[in-house]
Amino acid sequence: MKIFVVGGAGYIGSVCTELLLDEGHEVAIFDNLIEGHRRAVDSRVNFIRGELADRAQIESALTGTRPDAVMHFAAYALVPESMRDPSKYFRNNISNGLNLLDAMLKTEVRRIIFSSTCAIFGPPDRVPIDESAVPRPISPYGESKLAFEKILRWYDEIHGFKFVSLRYFNAAGATGRSRSVKARISKSTGPITRRLTAHAFAITSTLSILRTRTFWRLGQPPAASTTLARAAAPVFRR
Ligand SMILES: NC(=O)c1ccc[n+]([C@@H]2O[C@H](COP(=O)([O-])OP(=O)(O)OC[C@H]3O[C@@H](n4cnc5c(N)ncnc54)[C@H](O)[C@@H]3O)[C@@H](O)[C@H]2O)c1
Fold first, then answer.
1. What is the predicted pLDDT for the residue at 195?
2. Which residues are catalytic?
3. Structural domain range at position 123
4. How many CB atoms lie within 10 A of CB 191?
5. How many CB atoms lie within 10 A of CB 73?
6. Residue 218 lies in a domain
7. Pocket flag, ligand 1, residue 39 (CB < 6 Å)
8. Which atom of ligand 1 is nearest to the CA of 51?
9. Tens of pLDDT along 127-185?
10. Which CATH number characterizes residue 113's domain?
11. From the centroid of its chain, how far is CA 222?
């Protein structure tokens, strides 16, 4: 399939892009590089430097690539910053996201996988948190993601969009190529974040080597791509 990855130069988007390419999909990335890194972008993709705030840019990128589905990773994603500057979060995560949905509508692309977040839940009544937990965000960041989930539901109801919202918890790890994580390490500003990311990188690289070897022997795909494929199934099903 042809997948249009918005925010594919960022941490999670670049790793997912690598998995998609490895599984034989064709990928175009749309990213303004405000948080992402050009060197995190796999050389096999069609990279479009563009800004979601610019409706014409996103529309022309979709017209030029004609994807089967969109994966939407682009957002601001820092809770403390969202408490200081809520407007920045509502504007990028909701208004600019709406530009994407309307451009999809115009170009007749109706499948989307949205990067939501565990921050939509707030303090949980019970753990582990599952999908039935009541969303009660306690930050503009979480609120912006919950709002976009609701918008997607209405675009489904009214315009026939097919969507999945993935509510990630804190992601850590790397693929074999590990480009995106190296980029992430250099991006992190605080020494603690840098050290934690480096440790996560070391641990997950080792685990990933072990897992890949095991899966080679068992003839099964790596767990990450299996999970991704399972989560995305409702959108990719024709
Ligand atoms: N990293 C995590 O642990 C985590 C946890 C929960 C949810 N999420 C969500 O997953 C998604 C990806 O997270 P990440 O850690 O990879 O973030 P990231 O900042 O590394 O990647 C986001 C990418 O989107 C791009 N972008 C942002 N605004 C844009 C715009 N207006 N136009 C074009 N491109 C734009 C950035 O340049 C960047 O490359 C985000 O939506 C985030 O809210 C991440």
1. 47
2. 141
3. 2-172+210-237
4. 8
5. 25
6. yes
7. no
8. 32
9. 999 989 999 999 999 999 999 999 999 999 999 999 999 999 998 888 877 544 454 54
10. 3.40.50.720
11. 19
Cβ contact 53:96 at 8 Å: yes
Residue 103 lies in a domain: yes
Reported as half-sphere exposure (CB side, CA atoms, 13 A), residue 209 has a value of 7
CA distance 35 to 37: 7
The DSSP code for 134 is: P
| Dihedral (CA of 184, 124, 227, 77) sign | negative
Q: Judge whether 48 lies within some domain.
A: yes
* Cα 210 to averaged position of ligand 1 atoms, centre (Å): 29
Q: How is residue 191 written in tokens?
A: 């020494």
12 CA distance to ligand 1 middle (Å): 7
pLDDT score at 186: 52
Dihedral sign, Cα of residue 61, residue 234, residue 231, residue 222: negative
Number of structural domains, the chain? 1
Q: Which residues have CB under 8 Å from 41's CB, separation 6+? A: 8, 9, 14, 17, 29, 31, 47
Residue 188 domain flag: no
| Ligand 1 atom nearest residue 34's Cα | 37
Q: Is the separation of the CB atoms in 7 and 75 below 8 Å?
A: yes
